[in-house]
Amino acid sequence: MAVIVDQVQTLLERRFQEANLSQFVKWDYSQFLDLSWGGRELFVEVVLTDGSALDEAEKLVRQTAEELAHQGIELDSVVRALWEIESIEYSGRSKTPELRQYRAAAEFRVVLRSGSRHHQVLVHVFSGAIDILRHKLGLNDSVASLERELPDGHLLTRW
């Protein structure tokens, strides 16, 4: 029922406020869904603007789910942050996890930022995807490197 969903949303909003986490929540991106007829199975997605609040927010939602379980309400949840790309660096040719064989791909080291939290990931871009990018950028007939063809500041300038 929508009433139970609304009650859970109000409860979480109050708890985030009390924990001084409300400032990090993007409520208009968050979701509160009834997955069953009667409001006994709910799904909550809480979206944060600062990844440094992820652990505390996940703990708060988990505690709420445990309390609701005692009332016969199952709460499934996802707490995630909005991330921005801070930097991209070409690392070289992509290798298999065992580091034994090269793949038909390039590896990029990407630093993501969400508020005050940073996270580093490796992105493997396969040659087919690079061909699609070249085509979309109008570079498919060229043999020159992307570095010379793209304007400064473009994400692929280090390729």
How would you describe this structure to a colleague?
The chain is of the alpha+beta class. The protein folds into 2 domains: 2-81, Alpha-Beta Plaits, CATH 3.30.70; 84-149, no CATH class. The chain is 30% helix and 35% strand. The chain contains 4 helices and 6 strands; from the N terminus they run αββαββββαα. It is elongated and about 55 Å long.
Largest sheet strand order = 1-2-3
* Strand/helix succession: HEEHEEEEHH
Number of domains: 2
- CATH-derived architecture of the largest domain: 2-Layer Sandwich
Q: Structural class of the helices, strands and pairings? A: alpha+beta
What key phrases describe this protein's structure?
Alpha-Beta Plaits; 4 helices; 2 domains; alpha+beta; 159 residues; three-stranded mixed sheet; 30% helix
Any chance you could write out the topology, listing elements then pairs?
Blueprint: H1 2-18, E1 31-34, E2 41-48, H2 54-69, E3 74-81, E4 84-95, E5 102-114, E6 117-126, H3 127-136, H4 146-149
Parallel strand pairs: 2-3
Antiparallel strand pairs: 1-2, 4-5, 5-6
Summarize the structure.
With 159 residues, this protein is an alpha+beta fold.
